[in-house]
Design goal:
Elements lengths: L1 H26 L7 H8 L7 H36 L11 H13 L6 H4 L3 H21 L5 H24 L3 H12 L7 H18 L3 H8 L2 H6 L4 H23 L5 H13 L4 H23 L10 H19 L4
Length: 336
């Protein structure tokens, strides 16, 4: 009875909190803007200070939208990966897609690939996407020959380690300036997506999250084991291929535009299961998307140092928030 009561309360609670923190994230920063002014400007009004309008429309609104998209996308990917591999430590980066994106960026920044000036501000994004697609193609090819998900998980980890080793070699031959640029990208950022990039980033993530919602039946069946799934007529190989493809594209897109943002894909699925008290993915998928968006908004606010122009790396904040959340949820041991 307790679980039944928890489900609707959480489902209605999160959509109320999300717009509140959405406004709060826009209002909070180096320059504090009153809540009422933020709402007034977003509704098309004219602010008493022109600088506030510029800050809201040109900087904070795209950053806040990026936080929502990143949190939702990584959380949904993490949930599907944990179910697919039956591994509580799996997340959006399990198969090494982020390593492929890192390799693309490393080749551009550290390797001196000479086409950067032709691509302008899209150079890093395109390089990351190409790198992520390369690893994705390898993973999908291997999927056709490996039946056991544990073996595929190991292959993904080995690919990630191999790519990381190659990046270290590139770093050893790079200069200080190139190393700083690459290190900054690996910290992750929500500020790199301007309105021009948002035209590409927003539909890619929204479509990926939307399509993920249709896999709830397959994920519910996979939780019960391969034998049971086969008895129900589920094509396990095809289902795995589709889930891996969708998650690879979604993860690759987020990594390409925002860098590597860890722990969200691990922490949010665990927290969603605990709060809902169920393994029903029809509920877990949308709740994870909303909870992930909310968590990223909170982390983005925590990145801002009051009365200071400095902004903490988002990757550090998500780790500091995500680690205690996962540990606390696991210690509760109230879900399977």
């Amino acid at each position: 009875m307790k679980t039944v009561l928890q489900k609707p309360s959480l489902m209605y609670f999160l959509p109320i909190l999300l717009p509140i923190f959405f406004i709060a994230d826009i209002a909070y920063g180096t320059v504090s803007i009153p809540f009422q002014e933020v709402i007034h400007v977003l509704l098309g009004g004219v602010s008493e200070k022109k600088s506030w309008e510029i800050i809201i429309w040109q900087f904070r609104l795209p950053k806040t939208l990026t936080a929502i998209l990143v949190g939702s996308g990584l959380s949904v990917c993490g949930l599907q990966m944990q179910t697919l591999f039956r591994n509580p430590l799996a997340d959006a980066y399990t198969l090494g897609i982020s390593s492929g994106a890192s390799l693309g960026v490393a080749l551009l920044i550290l390797g001196g690939v000479g086409f950067a000036h032709f691509l302008g501000q899209w150079a890093i994004v395109i390089s990351a996407i190409v790198g992520a697609l390369g690893i994705m193609a390898i993973i999908l090819l291997i999927t056709n020959y490996i039946q056991q998900m544990v073996s595929l998980l190991i292959v993904g980890l080995m690919l990630g380690n191999g790519v990381a080793a190659f990046i270290i070699i590139l770093q050893s031959f790079s200069g200080k300036e190139e190393l700083q640029r690459f290190a900054y990208w690996t910290y992750g950022t929500l500020s790199a997506v301007d309105w021009e990039k948002m035209k590409v980033f927003l539909p890619m993530v929204l479509i990926g999250v939307f399509l993920s919602m249709f896999f709830y039946k397959s994920l519910n069946i996979l939780v019960l084991g391969d034998n049971y799934a086969k008895s129900l007529g589920l094509n396990i190989k095809q289902t795995r291929w589709k889930i891996i493809l969708l998650n690879s594209i979604l993860t690759g897109s987020i990594t390409a535009f925002c860098g590597i943002i860890g722990f969200v894909g691990i922490a949010v699925p665990h927290l969603s299961r605990y709060l809902l008290g169920t393994n029903n993915h029809k509920l877990l998928l949308p709740v994870s998307a909303l909870l992930g968006a909310l968590l990223m908004l909170v982390c983005d606010m925590l990145c801002q140092i009051p009365n200071s122009p400095h902004v903490l790396p988002i990757n550090a904040i998500t780790a500091l928030v995500g680690v205690p959340v996962v540990v606390w949820v696991i210690m509760q041991r109230r879900y399977k």
